[in-house]
Queue: 3 jobs
Job 1
Amino acid sequence: MKFSAPKGTRDLLPPETAAWQHAEHVFGDVCRRFGYGEIRLPTFEQTELFQRGVGDTTDIVQKEMYTFPDKGGRSLTLRPEGTAGVVRSYVENGMASWPSPVRLYYAITAFRYENVQKGRYREFHQFGCEAIGAAGPAIDAELISLLQLFFAQMGLAETKLRINSIGCPVCREAYQALLRDWLKPHLPQLCDNCQDRFVRNPLRIIDCKETRCQAVTAQAPAQADHLCADCQAHFDGLQHQLNVLGLSYVIDRRIVRGLDYYTRTVFEFVSEHVGTQGTICGGGRYDGLIETVGGAPTPGIGFALGVERLLMELDAQGIQTPPAPTPVLFLAIAGDHEDEARRLCFRLRQAGLAVETDLLGRSLKAQMKYAGKSGTRYVLVLGDDEAASGSGRLRNLETRAETEVRLDQLEQHLLEA
RNA sequence: GUGGGAUUAGCUCAGUUGGUUAGAGUGCCAGAUUGUGGCUCUGGAAGUCGUGGGUUCAAUUCCCAUAUCCCACCCCA
C-alpha cells in the first residue's frame, strides 16, 4: 500500500516553507500596526453555524462542506472560511463589551470539497481580518489600506483593487425586483445557468463569465446605481476615504460575492497569474451577520486572502522572499574527537548559534561537501591539533579564507560575523 | 457534478511499430593516497513502467475500468 496526500491537499516542504513563514510574519506585523490581535479558533464548528452564517443557498454550504458526525452524534464541519467562526467567538465571548471596534486577524487552513485546479485546493490557507463594531466607511478604507500595505511589504508590484456596493437588505430587494423586470425580455439570450439564477438569485447573473450573458448584462442596471440613501452615503464615504489615503481603485459593478452575509461594501484584489481563479483576496461588510449568529445587531467587515494565490502571484512577478536561514558553522570532525565536537556544538547552540556537526561518521571530505551544499558560512575542523592546542582554523566557505580562533572564543567570533 | 491532457528511478523526462537483463540527465552515496567543499573523472544504490482486470504464446507498450496529478466549466481564497 502506497500512501499519498489526499486529493486537493499538498505537502509544504522546506525550503518552500520559508516563503510561507515570511508571508505569515509580514502579515502579522502589518496587522499589529493597525491594532489587530491574533485569534485562534477551532478547525471545525457545529455544522449549523456555517449553514446560518455563510448561508444555506450558497455553493459552499450546499455542496462543498466537509461535514461529519462525531461519536456523540453531533454534526461538525471543517471550516470552509474564517468569518463565521470569528463571529461565533465574538458573540460567545461577549466581545461586544470590549473596546470597540474589535479588530482580529488570523492565519488558518480552510476546507472545501471542490474539484482542484490552478489556485484552488480542498485544503487551502487564508489570512484574514475582521473588524467588528464600526459602521462607518472609515473602517472599510482602513482595512483596505492594511491590505495595500501588506502587499507593498511583500514586494508586490501592482495590485488591482476593485470595489462595489451591493446595498443592504432593503435596497437589495428593490433592486432585485428592478433587475428581474429588466432581464425578463433578455431571458432567452442567457446561458442555462443564468436561466436558473433568474429564479434563485438574479444578482449572480451580473457576474456570469459567459460572454453572451455579459453582453446582455453590460447595460443592466447596477446595484450601485440603485442604493438607498444610507447605502449611497456609505459608498460615497468609502470612496472619499480611499481618496484621502491615496489608494487607487476601480468600481466594478460586477462584483457580487458568493457568500450570503455581505452587505454594502464588497471588494477584491485580483491578479492575472492565478489561472482563472484571479481573486487573491476578497472581502466585504457583513452588517447582518452577528445578529444571524445570535448576537445583538452589530456591524462588521472583513476579508480573506488566499495564501496559495498570493504566493503564486509573488512567484509570477519574480519576487524573491528571504531564504531559509542556513547554519553559521559546520563543525567537521577529523579522527577520534566526536565527544568534544558534540560538546562544543551544543555549547554554541546554547549561545544562540545555528551549528551543525557530522552524525554519520563520514570522511572529512564528505563532511566538507555536505557543508558546502547546505549553505553553511563557516567550517571548523576539530581534530588532534585543535584538541591539543585549543584553537583551530575557521574557514569561510565563500571566500575560502581561514582565520585562527581559540575554541573558547568561537561564540564571540561567530556572533560578530 | 461535467469535460480535456497526463502518470516510466527521489526529481525532470526518453523509450518499446507488443518480444528476453527498461534508459538519460539531475539528485543521493562512495572513491580519485595521508586533515579541507563547489569544477572534473570513476563507480554504486535506486523502478512490481500509477492500480486492477482483459486481449495475446508474450503487455511498460493494445483495450476497459479505477485512482491521482494538471487544466477548464461551476463557484470561490
Job 2
Amino acid sequence: MDGTAHRLPAADDDPGEVLVDWYATAARDLPWRRPGVDPWGVLVSEVMLQQTPVVRVEPVWRQWMARWPTPAALAAVSPAELIRAWGKLGYPRRALRLREAAVALVERHGGVVPPDVTALEALPGVGTYTARAVACFGHGQPQPVVDTNVRRVVARLVHGRAEAAPARSADLADVAALAPTDPARAVRFAIAVMELGALVCVARTPRCGACPVRNACAWRQAGCPAADGPPRRVQKFAGTDRQVRGRLLDVLRAAEGPVAAVQLDQAWPDAVQRSRCLDSLLVDGLVEQTGDRRFRLPA
DNA sequence: GAGCCGTGGTC
DNA sequence: TGACCAAGGCT
C-alpha cells in the first residue's frame, strides 16, 4: 500500500492542493518564471517588483538580464548607469542596493546567489519576503513566502477577515500550515497563493466567482463582512519630498553631464524643500557633487 | 513601529 | 478627481 491512494481524496478539498492545480491552468506567463531563469534573475525580478506593478517591471527586467546576466556583471556597472537603466520604476534606491548586493555576492559568495534564507537576508535590499522568494522560486526550496497578496488571501481564506492585518511573525506559520507536504508542490503552492491574490483575491473587488477555493473561504462563509479595523491611511505623494526627489533625479537622468544648481531650480519652486531633497539624495548616494559645485548621478 | 522612500494606472 | 493600490525594506 502506498500513501497516494489515501492522499488523493483529501486533495479535492485541501485548499493548498487545489491552489497548486489552479496555478497550473491560470498562471501568467511572466519572463522570470520561465525555465532557465537562474536565482540571480529571480532576485533581480523580486527587487524590481517591490511595490511596483508587473507590467512596468517586465521590459526593464528583460533589459537588465540581457545586459547584466550575472552578479559580477552588475557589480561592475556605475551607479549612474544603473539609475538611468532603472528608468521610472520608482524607489531608485533599490537600484543602488541591487548593485551593493551584487558586490556582496561577488565578494562573499563566489558570484552566485546563495540558497539559504539567512545569507540572502544579509544582502542589501533583501528582507524577509525577498529572501524567501529567492530561496523558493530561485532555488526550489519549499519556503513559506509572505507578501501583501498572501497576507490578504490568508486573512480571508483562513481568518474570515476582509483585509490583511499588518505583517506579523505568525504569517509564516499560517502559510506553512496551508502548504502541501510534497516539496515540489509546496514550491508551486507558494507562488500559487501570490498569484491568487494578484488575479482573483484582489484588494478592491475580489472576483470570488472565479476563485478555486471559494468553498473553503472563511470570509465568504461569514458573509464577506466589511473590514472592521481602523482605516489605514495612504501616503500622500503630491508636494512631498518623494515627489521633489523624483523631479530632481529626472533632471539629472536627462542631463548628459553635470548640471549647475540653477538648472535644478526649475525642478521645484520651493527652495527650502528643494535644497533639503537634494541633500537627502546626496546622503543616499543617488546624486554626487562635483568639485565645481555642480551635480550629477554618481559615477 | 510608524513613517519614509517613486511612479503611474484604476475606478 | 482624488483616494487607493502595486511581489517591501529600512530606520
Job 3
Amino acid sequence: MTEDVRIAEIAALVGDPTRVNILAALMGGRALTASELVYAAGVSPQTTSGHLAKLADGRLIACVKQGRHRYYRIATPRVAEMLEGIMAVAVDAPARHRPRSKLDDAMSNARTCYDHFAGKLGVGLTDVLATRGHIVLADEGGEVTESGAAFFGKFGVDLAAAHSRRRIFCRPCLDWTERRPHLGGSVGAALAQRCFDLGWLERARDSRALSITKAGQRGLSETFGLSL
Amino acid sequence: MTEDVRIAEIAALVGDPTRVNILAALMGGRALTASELVYAAGVSPQTTSGHLAKLADGRLIACVKQGRHRYYRIATPRVAEMLEGIMAVAVDAPARHRPRSKLDDAMSNARTCYDHFAGKLGVGLTDVLATRGHIVLADEGGEVTESGAAFFGKFGVDLAAAHSRRRIFCRPCLDWTERRPHLGGSVGAALAQRCFDLGWLERARDSRALSITKAGQRGLSETFGLSL
DNA sequence: TTGAAACTACGGTCGTGGCCGAAGCATCCC
DNA sequence: GGGATGCTTCGGCCACGACCGTAGTTTCAA
C-alpha cells in the first residue's frame, strides 16, 4: 500500500513545529520571502532553508524567484484546506496543557485565513450574513441564497466570476480563536478581496493580523452593522 | 503560539507509516481489535500497542474495552475528514515514484471510506445521482435536490433523521483510486447504511473492501443502473 | 487453579532527522 | 570590480522516537 507512505510523508512534513510555524505564516495568504520566513520559523536561515526545500519538494508550498528574493506560498487551495482540517482537529482536542496563550488582540480581532477572513471579523461577518438570510451554513457545506446573491452583487462581489455553476456553495472553516465557523471557500475569498479593494482593511507587515481602516470602520458598521 | 505545537503533534501522529496503516485500516469504518490492527500495522504487537496508545492519547482514535478485547475506532468524524484532506493532497501530488501498486480489485471496486462508499461503487453511485439531478455537487459542497429528497425517501433513506435543517448538504470526498469525488458526509453515510441494511453489500473480514451480494447486483442494477 | 489469549509496560539498540557553523552561489548596488 | 544581501549546500553533533525481546497484567475457558 504505497499510498500510505505518501500520506505519512505529507503528514510528517506538517508534523514539525518549525515547519508549522512556516506554514502558519504562509496561511496568511501572502507569498513571503525566505528571510521573512526565517523570522516566522524561529530558527537559523540554513535550517529554514532546509525546511523550505522539504516543503517545496513535497509540493506543499511553491516558490517563485524574483530578483534575489524567493517568494514562497501555499501551493494549492487543497493544501490550505488540509491545514484547516488539521487545525480543526487540533482545536477541538481538550485543553491538555494549553496555557491559553494571549495572542495579540489584533490577531484574534481580524486576520486572514489563507484567502478569507477569520477572527472576530470573519465570524462576525458570517453571523450577519447568516442572520440576514444571505447565506445558509451547515456542518458540511453552505450555500448563497438568492437574496445573498443580490446582496453580494450590490456590494461589488462578482460571484459569477468565481463560479460557472448555477448554485453557489461555500465552505465553513472552523475558527481556531473563536471556535466557531466562518465563511471560507471561494465566496469567503471573494468577499475578503472586495473588502481589501474597498480599502477597508490593511495587512500588517509581519503578521497575519489585519488592521481596520477608518473607511473600514464606517463601511463595516453601515453595511454589516459590525463594530470591532 | 502554542497552537502551532498542537498542530504539529497531530500531524506528527499521522506522519508515521505504521500509524497510517493503522488509521487507514480504521478508516474502513469498523472498530477493530488491537490484534487485528497488529496485522494491519505490519509490526510487532508491542510496537502496535505503543502506537495505539499514542494515537489514543492524541485523541485521534478512541478505545472501548469489551471482555479481553479492546476495540479501537476513529475518534470523531472530524478526524476522518482531516485524514481525507491529507489523502486528497497525497493523491494529487504528481507521480514521483509511485509504482501504481495494483491493490486488489475488490478494494478498488468497492470499499468503505469511514462511513460511506468509495471506489468504483462510490463514484458510480455519485455519478448516477448527479446525472439524474438528485444531488448537485460542486468543489466546495453539495446539496440534495427536491427530486433527490423524494428519491432517497422512496429508497428508504431517512434524511430528516440526519438533518434537522431544511437544506441537506453533502460533502464531496476525493477518491484516491478513482481520483474523482464521491458522495460523503451524512448523506453518503445514510446511503451506505441503507445499502448494508438491504443486504446488498458485505464487509470483507480483514479489509476495507466490500463484496457485492447477489441481491446487491440486482438492486444496484435496477435502482441505479450500475453493474460492477 | 492452571493455562492460554489479549494486551501493555520496560529497557536497550539504532537510524532518521533537526539543528547550527562554515562555506558557497546568485543577485543587486555603488 | 568590490562589497553587501539573500539564500542554499555541506558536514558534524545530538536527541527523539520506532523497533523488538522480555516480562507483566487482565480476562476468559476448562
